[in-house]
# Entry
Amino acid sequence: MTSKAPLPNLAQVLSPVLQNIPAEHQPLFIALAERQAAQRYRSWAETVAEGNRASLLACADREEEIARCVESLYPDAASIQKMLLEKNPSFASSSQLLFAPFSIDRQFVLQAQGERLGAATWRAFAKRATDAKASETFLDCATLEEQNAQFLESIVGDRSV
# Structure
């Protein structure tokens, strides 16, 4: 788990998947990815020194909050997400495969990049939203993503290469 291979470009990895998701359902699909990120943070919290455990769990909570807020915008979120997962069966395992080859520090760097990409994505959704509540929700999600990115970047510091 110490691969020196370059980190994948998450935008390039995720773009083809999102292109197959109807635009109106993309936020719900990304909410699924947020829940996967929450699981990743919890897993890291179990394996790192006590000093970062609480912060990693706070990151997991923020990821869950993002997913809950986005899902609250859709009255039939669970059924739509189920359908999206059925149409993208490899989605559940792809995240694990993406992170697995790398050391924990490099996983943190990759996750921080994902958080920054997520913040930009939520802002793009906010700009396109025709509903004020949805726009505000997406902007709030962007802020939560940035908080997670800032934390990860603070702990990897110079080790990010």
